[in-house]
Structure formats: C-alpha cells, structure tokens
Amino acid sequence: MSNDDHSIIFSTDQRCGRIVINRPKALNALSGEMCHEMNQHLMAWAHDDAISHVVISAVEGKAFCAGGDVRALIPMLKENHDHAKAYFETEYQLDLIINTYPKPVISVANGLTMGGGAGVLMNAAYQVITDRMDFAMPETAIGLFPDVAASVFLRRAPEPVASFLGITGWRIGAGDMKALGILSPDTGFVVDSTAIDHVITALVGLENPDAAAIKSALTSVMITPDEDPQNTPVLNALDWIKTHFSKPDLPAIRASLAHENGQGDDNSMAEACLKAIDARAPLSMAVTHYLMTAPKYEGLSVAAALDWDNTMACRITLRPDFIEGVRALLIDKDNAPEWHPASIDDVTPEMLDDIFSETDMITLDYPQGYNPQNR
Ligand code: QUE
To answer: Does the domain made of 1-367 have the CATH classification 3.30.1340.30?
Structure first.
C-alpha cells in the first residue's frame, strides 16, 4: 500500500495504534485508497500484541472528515459501475472492522463530521467529540441516503428525528448529538476543543481503555453542552419535528410543512425544511424516510445495517441521481441538479421496492485475514 501523499498518517505510540486523517484541503474526505490503508493497518494491529487500542483523529483544522471522496469516485463510476461497488465495499468494511475490532477503538472528532466521517466516528467503541462538532448526514443532497450504519446511530434519536435529520441533512452540534441520544451516554464523551491535544495524549497513553478509564482521563476537560438550551436547537424543536415528520410519507411531510409556512409564527424552521426538501433528490429522501422509519430496520446490528447500506448503495448508484448530485454540488457547483424522478410525487412504490428488495442482497465480507470480535 502506498501512502506517498500521507493522506493518512499511521504510527504507534506506547501501546496505541494511531491513525490521523491528513487531507485538510479536501476536508479529510476519504478516498477508497485511504479506507483500504486504514483497513490494512487495523488488520495488522488486531493481531499485534504490542498494540492495546487504537485512536483515530484528524489533523488540526476545520474538519474531522467530510465523508467519502465522492468527487473522485464519479469518473470511475462512469467508466464502470464496479468501481463504485468496490469503493462502497471498502468504506463499509472500514466501518465494520472499526465496529467489530477486538481492541478498543476511540475516535476523536473535533470539527465537521459528515457521511463517511460519521461512520468512522459512530461505529467506534468510544466516541469523543468537542464543542466544535458540526455533524450531518447530508447524502440526500447528492442522490445517496444516510449510509455507514446511520440506520443504527440516527435511529437512537427519538422518532421521527432520524427521518428529519436524514431527509434534510440538518447539521447538529455536540449538544444535540448528546441530548438526542445519537451520541451514546455510555460510550460518548464531549470535551473542550481547546484541550484536544491533551485529550489525544491522555487517550494514547491509557493502559486499559475502558469507559471508566476514558472517563477519568477526560474528567477535567469534559463539558456538558446539553445543559444549555441554546446548544440543543433540535431537541428544543422536538414537538415541532414530531408534528411534521411523523407523517406517513414525504408528500405528507411536505404538505404539513407548507401548511404551517404562512401561518404566521416563527416559520424559519419550516422554511428551511421546505427549502431542503425542494432541493434534495426525491428518491433519496423517500429511501431515507423508509430506512429511518420502517420497523424492519429497527434494532439492526451494525453489521446487518452495513449489509443493507452496501446493497442499497450499489442499487441506487445504478440510477442517475448520484452522478448528477455530485456533479451539481461538488464538481460544477451550479447547485442545479436534475433529479430522476424530479418530484417527490413521482417516486413510485416500485422504485422503493427495487432499492429495498431482499433478493440478491450483498453480504459484506471482511477483508481476508481479519477475525472479527462480534459480528
Ligand atoms: C453531501 C455529501 C457529501 C458532501 C456534500 C453533500 C459528502 C462528501 C463531501 C465532500 C466535501 C469536501 C470534499 C470532498 C467531498 O461533500 O459525502 O471531496 O473535498 O464527501 O451535500 O454526502
């Protein structure tokens, strides 16, 4: 594996395997090669008695990780869809390895964390975030859906917050992540961003990194952002979100929002949601609504969620919206995607059945030579 551009820095320090994402110009977006390298190092460290735990962080800057490097993926996908399949498989394998790792993995995210970055954070045994957290699952904007086991971690929030977050790509901070339960109370920690170097040093030096040891190492820098109502705008709007996003389908959600908009009161949230729904890929939003509400996807293991994500990502990227969304938002930046179908009213049950079909599901395999702990 070449790592000539040092997009990821691997090292060992005391008994810790360290992974530092180092691609700040692309907001630390993960290429297939970067995921592959992480998989290789994680597999080697899994069987290395000198390593007791792994800490994943990013170089100082705005982002922990903005997601997958979907921009680079598009030319390859256009040439051959198998490239997209291989990319998603490698990315989800990374999430699966992180989630089933035989030693504690601690992800430390200080800044923008979206999509694939959320996978690296949320599937770790321990999640350390900061007051600078800016978290979103924005994939409906590019013709995908919240993947990387978002059907597990978004669905930890009260229903129907997972739908709301996934459909609109709403950005939330540490306060809401914690207050909504997306950040697990047992394995998630919020620390002061100004102490991030100290935090990483303390985590790297841990002898036996269980929840109690991590907590005591971080006690002096832990903060409780959820106690300030200013820090929990989504929690504060919970009843409002329930009113609108509990509706049975996207057209009903949109109608409910449109009905409120223009009724006086404070319409800023209704307006922002309508704007999001009118800009994002209709099929992606319908897929997201189903994935975040269907009883069938409740209580999945991370491994089962990733099997679905992998299967569905392969299917949805055979359709035109992903290429078009990445073109419009990230390549040409005209912000004028032409979606197929173009309207939420034109998403058919057949389209959804095709994406969610249980026939020909792909089971995600571990890379050869990796023994999972608890699939
Ligand atoms: C939705 C997304 C992504 C996004 C924007 C969206 C995403 C992603 C990136 C991204 C950002 C900066 C980069 C880059 C990619 O943006 O997944 O290569 O330099 O990775 O609206 O899902």
So the answer is: no
Q: Is 70 in the pocket of ligand 1 (CB under 6 A)?
A: yes
State the pTM of this model. 0.96
Instruction: Return the best residue to mutate from 114, 165, 327, 339 for the ligand 1 pocket (most ligand atoms within 8 A of CB).
Output: 114
Sorted by where each begins, the domain ranges of the chain are 1-367
Condensed to tens digits (0 to 9), the pLDDT of residues 191-246 reads 999 999 999 999 999 998 999 999 999 998 999 888 888 999 999 999 999 999 99
Q: What is the number of the ligand 1 atom nearest to the C-alpha of 67?
A: 20
Closest protein CA for atom 19 of ligand 1: 26
- 115 in ligand 1 pocket by Cβ < 6 Å? yes
- Integer CA distances (angstroms), 142 to 28, 178, 220, 279, 329, in order: 18, 27, 41, 10, 7
pLDDT digits (tens, 9 = 90+) for 31-63: 999 999 999 999 999 999 999 999 999 999 999
Q: Which residues pair with 130 in a beta bridge?
A: 191
